[in-house]
Amino acid sequence: MSEPAPATARAGAADGHGAPEGNPDDVLRVRNLSTRFFTEEGQINAVESVDFTVRDGEVFGIVGESGSGKSVAALSLIDLVDSPGRITSGEVWYRDADLADEFRDDLPEAVDGDFVDTRRLPEGVRRALRGPAFSMVFQDPMSSLNPSITVGEQIAEAVEVQRRARANPRSTRSRTQEYGMGRLIVDTLLPNRGYTSESSMNRAIELLEQVGIPDPAERAHEYPHQFSGGMLQRAMIAQALAGEPDVLIADEPTTALDVTIQAQILNLLRDLQEEQDTSVVMITHDLGVIARMCNRVGVMYAGQVVERGTLADVFESPVHPYTEGLIGSIPDLDDPDPRLQPIGGNVPSLLDEEMGGRCFFADRCPKAMSDCLQDIPEYAADEGCDDHAVRCVLAEREYSEADALPADYFDRNKEVRGDE
Amino acid sequence: MGYGRFLLKRGVQGVGVVWGVVTVVFLLRFITPGSPIDTVAPLDASQETRRQIARELGLNQPLYVQYLDYIWELLHGNMGYSYISSIPASVQVFQKLPATLELAVAASVVAIVLSIPLGVVSATRRHQPADYAATSFSLLGISTPNFWLGIMLVLMFAVELNVFPTSGRAYGFMQSLAAITGPRPFFTVVTAWVASLFLPAITLGTYFTALITRLVRSGMLDELSSGYVRATRAKGLPETLVRYKHVLRNTLVPVVTVLGLQLGTLIGGAVITEAVFAWPGLGSEIIRAINARDWPILQGSLIVIGTGFVLLNIVVDALYAYLDPRVVAE
Amino acid sequence: MKIGPLSISPRTIRNLRKEFRSSGLARIGVVLIALVVLAAVFAPLIAPHNPRTQNLDRAQLPPLGFTDTEQQTQTKIVDGSVQTVTRNVTVNATATYPLGTNALGQDMLSRVIYGARTSLLVGLLGTVLAALLGVTVGLTAGYYRGRIDDALMRTADVSLAFPSLVLAIALIGLFSRFQADVAYRVSDPLVTSGLAGWFRDMVGLPTPMPETFVIPTVVVLVVGFVNWVWFARIARGEALSIREEEYVKAARALGGSDVRIVFRHVLPNAITPILVLATIQVAAIILLESSLSFLGFSGTTLSWGFDIAQGRGYLSSSWWIATMPGIAIVLSVIGINLVGDWLRDALDPGIEGEGGM
């Protein structure tokens, strides 16, 4: 499944396009997704040809150091990359039979079986998928809720927008109800009574209760600054669940919280995920969270998913030296002589001009060989495990001392190139 | 702290500031060299006459007695009498006040109606022609002295095109209302009123339109980059709702604060606009009073303006706390 | 007084450079300011005429590119009876007076150039005065907090309650009784040293320039006094937060005197927003000065505002008299605002809309 889909004739697949093959349980298949930022310093390749799949009712983890592009990858899924960033290529195939039927005739290239490529859908439809298809929990709950609107109202908005959408599917107008300057004035004069209805508010209170907020009816009328961090993250989760999404993206949902509260939030996510059979994409730098929560996992480095597979594949038999290094960097408490093994060097800047046509990890890799300088490696399935794929030459050959690069190879090269 | 207590606290502070204003205004007369007697008395007045005047004005009393007297009289609505016309200062000041209020309100309406949409368009279409037009306009607007703008408008619309009167106030708002039943034709009166108000209101309003446009634009750009906007989009809210209900509302919070601080500029601008258009308001009265050394009128005007400023700022604070609930909590 | 080490970090300078490079507007601003400063400093060298010389024969000449129609009335004896003959005469612009002349026949260009001096002098001196007053008050209030803070800030509130223009007029009205002379006359070093004469002879403009120049002292004092509040607010806010910083606490623990701590630690770290505010204030004070001279409170006649007031009487016949000085004001204020925006974007001092006209 890791190979790009062969160009066999399939219903709806035009010009050799179509959803990548995969497990029948997949709800999301991402292929070749690239997101770039066009800044004054130059082009930044935050996400570089990323492939992965997410199955029904599973927790898929994306793990990487900060700056590895994992948050941008998450935002790309839900189409929330802000300028100067832009998704430059790739497909995000999402399984929705109704949607597929709707577009089968008009946009055949965007439909393949029950899957639609959200990248090829009109922008309005893509937006309409936020909420019922995808939704997101962010890292810092304090800054992710509007400080001047009550928590309940904000959740009720999320409920309301889906109610309106169901009443009149995919019509932007009905969702907006022509919300303009006039409504703003009304809302300012009569706060919390503009857009949302009584029943949405009641549903919001239910949701708050579901995520374990005590006295939800009262707390719904409080403002974010009156909530603690943990409670606020619960509210954020309630808000994300309001549209009953198929895929919930959680971007470092516990990083900003106290350690004691982190566990509670993770348990809550796990419970809700099992209860509602939602798929979760869990983005984190914390391998502990991955080990505890995820069924399958993708490891990101320098904008690429360098290794992916089941939790057991990746954690117990990592192939990519970066994954090995990551796992090596967690102290093992059972080890009588625990020693943290940090990976030397820093995450690359992701500036396009500084990225060579080689494996991005080669300069930090303890097993760098001359082969690593040839090309950016493609995905290769690890032998025996269909689902375990690695972007590393080591997937196809053994490490050999003879081909190893000298230890100071990249330092020397830098001097030659006259880098600062 | 509840909303009511918050307002009460602001109100008490406001009373303190008004008291400060009154004190400063009272003292103004005493840092002025020369005695008011010189202004009032005829040049050839005898010593006896001068003493008589001093007694009438209470100038023979110790300073603190005069101060307490002044406050006591103020509390009874007495601001003294014009040295020139002997009319009570309160009467004269409040006679001129409506014209100034009318001008200030008209200018504020112009400013708010134009600036908020301009700022929103500018921020949401960043680096597009509409944004460049709005930013150029607002830069020009905050850089143009309003008296010169007024003169240029007169040159263009009154002298060259002859569509608006060059100066003066045709009818007031109240007169226009009265014309509904009055003998003069309603339409003529209202047209004349609006025509005479038009150029002064634009003159005074331009700076504020430009200022608020800039504030809304930069505030909105700030807000648009904050985390909750992304979260609001992620939950599926349509862009109009994100923009108006969430972003613009939060943008208005700092805008309102700055406007509170800039109310003084509005009144100062009104003074000079009145001078340009011979608008018979408080501003013209202040300039006349200073040139004629008619201190009671100046004092009365300053007290009215200062009190008005304090009251409006309490309104602004109330609005601020209403828009941003965190303010009350602090 | 030594103001500690001014902390301008390399990062700040990099930001300034970056913003400057990316912003064409900042460049325009710098050019405009440079033009105003050059005009102000070298006025006696570059002004084509003496701005005070009147010449009624050449009154109300239009600026280059325009013609003006003037009605001439002549009394003649025609066929033995006295008749008044009115005829239209076309007045052409001349390159000698590129911006035209005013009702007294004074060269508008020279007056605009000399007006830059008044505006800039009042703008800079007024700002320095306001900053000295305001920063002192603000730092004191913010550093000591408590009652001193309350008292000083309530004073600031009272001061804010008077619109600056109204307060300025009132203060000038009061000051004007202290001394009849509201302005201070200084000799112009460029003229008295003979430099201006030598230069003008060389370029072929042998007109003698005015030997003295008027500094409107009262206006400077008044605008400085009127605008201190904005500096006080900013300085206080900065002092309030900086005094909580560890290094200030450490300095206090080591027994440094308050004055020393304020000047060595608080002020240098508060200087960025103060400088940005000062830039914007120069523009605000230039506008205030022009308003005051427009209303006739300036103390000098070589001022843009004064000329606009003069030109107001001739709007229907000579529009340029009121127009030219106004354009000068707008351009110089735009220049300062552009530079202010640049500094604000680059330094991000967190001030918005502070300071008024």
UniProtKB/TrEMBL annotation, chain A:
PROSITE patterns on file? ABC_TRANSPORTER_1, ABC_TRANSPORTER_2
Reactions listed under catalytic activity: Ni(2+)(out) + ATP + H2O = Ni(2+)(in) + ADP + phosphate + H(+)
- Sorted alphabetically, which InterPro entries does this protein's record hold? AAA+_ATPase (IPR003593), ABC_Ni/Peptide_Import (IPR050388), ABC_transporter-like_ATP-bd (IPR003439), ABC_transporter-like_CS (IPR017871), Oligopep_ABC_C (IPR013563), P-loop_NTPase (IPR027417)
Q: Which SUPFAM superfamilies match?
A: P-loop containing nucleoside triphosphate hydrolases
Top-level taxon of origin: Archaea
- According to the entry, every stretch annotated as the ABC transporter domain falls at 28-327
Tell me which Gene Ontology terms the entry assigns under biological process. peptide transport
GO terms (molecular function) for this protein are: ABC-type nickel transporter activity; ATP binding; ATP hydrolysis activity
Stated EC number for the protein is: 7.2.2.11
State where the protein is found. Cell membrane
GO cellular component assignments: plasma membrane
In this chain, composition skew of type Low complexity spans 1-17
Broad class of where this protein is predominantly found: membrane
On whether Nucleotide-binding is a keyword of this UniProt record, the answer is yes
The topology of this chain with respect to the membrane is: Peripheral membrane protein
- This one is known as Nickel import system ATP-binding protein NikD
This chain's source organism reads Halobaculum gomorrense
Specify the taxonomic lineage: Archaea, Methanobacteriati, Methanobacteriota, Stenosarchaea group, Halobacteria
UniProtKB/TrEMBL annotation, chain B:
Would you tell me the Gene Ontology cellular component terms? plasma membrane
Domain of life, source organism: Archaea
Q: Which residues cross the membrane?
A: 12-31, 103-124, 136-159, 186-210, 252-277, 297-323
**InterPro entries tied to this protein:** BPD_transp_1_N (IPR045621), MetI-like (IPR000515), MetI-like_sf (IPR035906)
Q: Name one GO biological process term.
A: transmembrane transport
Tell whether Cell membrane is among the UniProt keywords. yes
Pinpoint the ABC transmembrane type-1 domain residues: 97-320
Q: Which keywords appear in this protein's UniProt record, sorted alphabetically?
A: Cell membrane, Membrane, Transmembrane, Transmembrane helix, Transport
Give the way it sits in the membrane. Multi-pass membrane protein
Q: Which Pfam families match?
A: BPD_transp_1, BPD_transp_1_N
The protein's location, in the record's own words, is: Cell membrane
Q: Which family does it belong to?
A: Belongs to the binding-protein-dependent transport system permease family.
**Per its record, how is this protein called by name?**
Peptide/nickel transport system permease protein
Q: Which organism is it from?
A: Halobaculum gomorrense
From TrEMBL, chain C:
Q: Which GO terms describe its cellular component?
A: plasma membrane
Name this polypeptide is given = Peptide/nickel transport system permease protein
GO terms in the biological process aspect are: transmembrane transport
Q: Which PANTHER family match?
A: D,D-DIPEPTIDE TRANSPORT SYSTEM PERMEASE PROTEIN DDPC-RELATED, OLIGOPEPTIDE TRANSPORT SYSTEM PERMEASE PROTEIN APPC
All residue ranges annotated as the ABC transmembrane type-1 domain in the record:
116-340
Q: How does it sit in the membrane?
A: Multi-pass membrane protein
Origin organism of this chain? Halobaculum gomorrense
Q: Which family does it belong to?
A: Belongs to the binding-protein-dependent transport system permease family.
User: Which residue ranges does UniProt annotate as crossing the membrane?
Assistant: 24-47, 120-144, 156-175, 213-231, 274-297, 317-339
Q: Which UniProt keywords apply?
A: Cell membrane, Membrane, Transmembrane, Transmembrane helix, Transport
Q: Which PROSITE patterns match?
A: ABC_TM1
Cellular localization per UniProt: Cell membrane
On the tree of life, the source organism's domain of life is Archaea
InterPro entries this protein is in? BP-dependent_transpt_permease, MetI-like, MetI-like_sf, OppC_N
Extract the Pfam families matched here. Answer: BPD_transp_1 (PF00528), OppC_N (PF12911)
